[in-house]
Amino acid sequence: MAAAASESVAELAAGLREVGYVPGDSTALVSYLATKLGKPILVEGPAGVGKTELAKALAKVFDRRLVRLQCYEGLDEAKALYEWNYRKQLLRIQAERQDTAWNEVQDDIFGEEFLLSRPLMDAITSEQPIVLLIDEIDKTDQEFEAMLLELLSDFQISIPELGLVEARSHPIVLLTSNNSRELTEALKRRCLYLWLDYPELDHELEIVRLHVPDLEATIARKLVEIVGMVRDLDLKKPPSIAESIDWARALLLLGADDIDADVFRETLSVIVKHRTDLDIVAERVGVKLGPASVSAP
Amino acid sequence: MADAPAAVPAGLAAQLIAFSEELRAEGVNSGTSQLLDAFAVLAEIPWADPGDFREALAATLAKSQEDRRIFELVFERFFFRAAEQAAIRAGVREHADEERGEGEGKGDAGGELDLDELRRQIAAALQAGEESLMRDLARLAIATFGRQGQHSGVIGVDVQRIRRALGLRSEPRHELPADDPRRAGVPREALRRFEALMRRELERGQIERTAKLPPSRPLNELDRALPSGPLQDLAAVHRVVAQLKRRLKTQGLQTRGHARHAHVDVRRTMRASLQTGGVPVDLRFKPIRPRRPEIYVLCDVSTSVTSASVFFLSVLHALHDSFRKMRSFVFIERISEVTDVFDRERDFRAVSEAIASDAGVADVSGYTDYGRVWSEFRALVEDDLHPRATVIVLGDARTNGRDPRADIFGQIAARAGRTFWLNPEPRLYWNYGDSVIATYEQHCRAFECWTTSQLEDFVKALTQPIHAASLISR
Question: Where is composition skewed (Basic and acidic residues) in this entry (chain B) (predicted)?
Answer without folding.
Answer: 91-109
